[in-house]
Design goal:
about 300 residues; mainly alpha; two-stranded parallel ribbon; about 10% strand; membrane; transmembrane
Length: about 300
């Protein structure tokens, strides 16, 4: 058992927002044998004891169906121990899922200019749904896609309805809508968690045995405790300008007037703001492939 290799294991970390700043700090380091829902159930039942009596305002996660369903089943079934937890799913995964659907139709590649103009606009319209009030999202989906031709319209709307907008969708609107998170100043991505896992993975090493994993993880925990101690003493890292400007742009988007009758004009303004949601290092491949005039 001591030489058991962990190449099939899954590292899982739980991070919480520091009480005095925007940074996330780890509070649980977990090694899972698989990503089965039964394993997630066992893990979240154990975590439930850790958070007993603590009010969790919200949780953000990746679009991993087993993990999301297990989290909701465990935490929202024990409101005697914790208050009901609202879970949100990261915006970038929603945008990637939509982009993959468009790419499947080669929707950005057409010799016909009117189609090259319409498809990028519809793509950004769909992303903008994440910042509409939830009750307007179903109507917004139909308005945002109406420029597509019939076959493409049916393909996109049926997919988005099944997975994202109808009441019994795989991922209901309330789980991926970002409007409340922006207004509350909460993060919209799991970038902090992904950065944490990359560093943790480097500390643990490639294909360790169980004792190496425990030793290396314990060393990593000690380093993280030093960081948390510095935050507790008032150390405040400066947030990058990109993120501050992005937040300002999204707040401006949320302050735009809207109603069901004026969604077309709202989408026109929203497309401009959504161009900011790109990696800090430069334009994403999608953004680089689209001319600015195509998304106005």
């Amino acid at each position: 058992m001591g030489r058991l290799r962990l190449h099939k294991g899954q590292q899982f970390g739980v991070l919480v927002k520091h009480k005095d700043c925007f940074l996330m700090s780890p509070c649980a380091f977990i090694l899972m044998p698989s990503r089965k829902k039964s394993v997630y159930d066992l893990m979240f039942n154990d975590l439930l004891q850790l958070f007993t009596g603590i009010k969790i305002s919200s949780c953000i996660a990746d679009f991993k169906e087993h993990a999301v369903r297990s989290f909701k089943d465990v935490f929202n079934s024990r409101q005697d121990l914790v208050a009901e937890v609202k879970i949100n799913l990261r915006f970038s995964h929603f945008s990637k899922n939509v982009l993959l659907r468009f790419k499947r139709l080669r929707m950005f590649h057409s010799a016909q200019k009117h189609l090259r103009d319409r498809r990028p606009r519809c793509f950004y319209n769909i992303l903008a749904l994440a910042f509409l009030p939830t009750h307007l999202v179903p109507a917004g989906l139909l308005v945002g896609c109406k420029e597509l031709d019939t076959a493409d319209y049916d393909f996109m709307v049926s997919y988005l309805s099944q997975y994202y907008t109808r009441p019994n969708a795989v991922f209901p609107v309330e789980e991926w809508n970002m409007r409340d998170r922006v207004l509350s100043g909460l993060c919209r991505s799991t970038n902090s968690q992904e950065a944490f896992h990359r560093v943790w993975g480097k500390e643990v090493g490639v294909n360790p045995n169980i004792w190496e994993w425990i030793e290396n993880t314990a060393r990593f925990i000690a380093k993280e405790r030093v960081k948390v101690g510095n935050l507790d003493r008032g150390d405040r890292p400066r947030r990058k300008n990109y993120y501050e400007v992005t937040d300002a742009s999204l707040h401006a988007l949320l302050n735009l007037p809207f109603d069901e009758a004026s969604l077309e004009s709202w989408f026109q303004s929203a497309r401009t703001h959504l161009r900011r949601l790109t990696p800090p290092g430069g334009e994403s491949p999608l953004m680089m492939s689209l001319k600015p005039e195509l998304i106005r």
